[in-house]
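pinning this so it doesn't scroll away 📌
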Amino acid sequence: MMELFRVHGMKKFRVENGQREQVPNPLHLPEKLNTMVATFSDTIVPILVFAGLGTRIFLLPTIGVTAIGYFVVHRKDTVEVRDVPYMYTLSLLLLWALGSGIYSLDHYLLTTFFNQ
């Protein structure tokens, strides 16, 4: 997850040649909404998942972004190019299915406030 933040998230804030990274918009969402979802899923979500806070719910937009990258944006690219969003999507789906585990803020908060 931190690699997702470092490679894709930080590009959203860098300015190269006077312009920020252009975020693909294959679903033709409003530009501001598309940029917000992509930025949130590549910057905020990895930090929350690393801390184990709201892992399953916060992974959903990131899974959506990577799956759209695989199925829509890169559908006609070579296998080498399609491999990256494919592996991200599979890894995130596995993390979503398994949850954050016992060494997470989710587990700590649940056992602290709802332990009987």
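📌 and the second one:
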Amino acid sequence: MSKLETGDVRARFGRRVETEDLPPMLAPRIPDCRAIGAWKGRSLVGVGMLAKLATGQCEVALIVRSDMKRRRIGTTLVSYAFAEARKLGGREVVAHVRSDNTAALGLVRSLGFMAVGGPGIELFYVARLSMVQALG
């Protein structure tokens, strides 16, 4: 948590998150849920979560350490999430993005997600895996 800026945490979760609140958010006890970590050496620099919501649909959420942004870590996390979604039988991946989180909005748009809901504080995006090329 010490390397996450308050603004980044608020952009992802919509509120201040205390250190003790973070572990359950990163490892929920949901069947067919996958945690994905991005590491630089022994330091965790980004975390993604993929959860199967319904038949053929998964949801992805992620956060990247503030000092490690703009290094394609988010792109890599989403790439792994797409691969895991396919293993779970997913046909589409959804993402909820706050309208003030310009970095996440740019990421989902660049990876083939299409807006399906909003406007408002939270926007909804979907990527149909048949339309998304494997990233690598």
